[in-house]
Amino acid sequence: MAGTDQTQTPRTGGPAIILIEPQMGENIGTAARAMLNCGLTDLRLVRPRDGWPNPRAVPTASGADAVLDQVRVFERTEDAIAGLTAVYATTARLRDQLKPVVTPRRAAEEMRAHHAVGTNCGILFGPERAGMTNDDVALADAVVNVPLNPAFSSLNLAQAVLLVSYEWFTAGDATPERQLSYEDDTPPATKDQLVNMFEHLEQALDARGFFRVPEKRPSMQRNIRAFLQRAQLSTQEVRTLHGIIVALSGLRKESGGE
């Protein structure tokens, strides 16, 4: 299916996702999909309205069997958080309780710190319609609040799970924020390939009389080499530039130039 690669090593583990009284199997399935997208596999359900297992969760999970196959069901939230050291509650309402309020990004950083020393964390998500009760919120160490459009901040269950799970994933991911994607058969050009191309280009420019002022030649050469190096050329692109230089040199000869 799209977006899957069975040759890759899957990422698993992470904080427990605890859904309190989820109403529809479809919502559980989409939440499981969001979890596995971000390498989370510990899904716990508290009093799911339609029971568990629920066949309606399977299609919307879109293959997230690694999550669905190990779902655990509990009667009480207190039982679902057993064994956890730090618990976060996702809610927009504090309900007169004095608790730290953190963004998903800050929560992810804190949970990564917990996991680094071997302690387990969990994130509570309330029912789709009513949200968590005061008693459930009281079990949490901190509240996670997602900064969104204040005039329209409503999220469905899977969206909320994905936002928090994504911040967890990226907090431990080393993917560069920006990079060039080279094909296997066209790796980045080496310095000797670039220098060879620079010299080829400069010879062609010499033949056209481009470097008219001798004292400016060194700085012009450096500028040309600098902007071409910024392009982060591939080996194929260097070969293409060689071809362009040859073609332009040929046009000059065919036109009867000196």
Automatic annotation (TrEMBL):
Is Disulfide bond one of the keywords UniProt gives this record? no
Q: Where in the cell is it found?
A: Cytoplasm
Q: Which gene encodes it?
A: trmJ
Q: Which GO terms describe its molecular function?
A: methyltransferase activity
Give the originating organism.
Inquilinus ginsengisoli
The chain positions of domain tRNA/rRNA methyltransferase SpoU type read 16-166
Q: What does this protein do?
A: Catalyzes the formation of 2'O-methylated cytidine (Cm32) or 2'O-methylated uridine (Um32) at position 32 in tRNA.
Q: Which UniProt keywords apply?
A: Cytoplasm, Methyltransferase, S-adenosyl-L-methionine, Transferase, tRNA processing
EC number(s) stated in the UniProt entry for this protein: 2.1.1.200
Put simply, this protein is called: tRNA (cytidine/uridine-2'-O-)-methyltransferase TrmJ
Q: Which InterPro entries match?
A: Alpha/beta_knot_MTases, RNA_MeTrfase_TrmJ/LasT, SpoU_MeTrfase, tRNA_m1G_MTases_N
Catalytic activity annotation: cytidine(32) in tRNA + S-adenosyl-L-methionine = 2'-O-methylcytidine(32) in tRNA + S-adenosyl-L-homocysteine + H(+); uridine(32) in tRNA + S-adenosyl-L-methionine = 2'-O-methyluridine(32) in tRNA + S-adenosyl-L-homocysteine + H(+)
Entry similarity comment:
Belongs to the class IV-like SAM-binding methyltransferase superfamily. RNA methyltransferase TrmH family.
Record has Mitochondrion as a keyword: no
Give one Pfam family.
SpoU_methylase
Q: Name one GO biological process term.
A: methylation
Share what the entry says about its subunit structure, partners included. Homodimer.
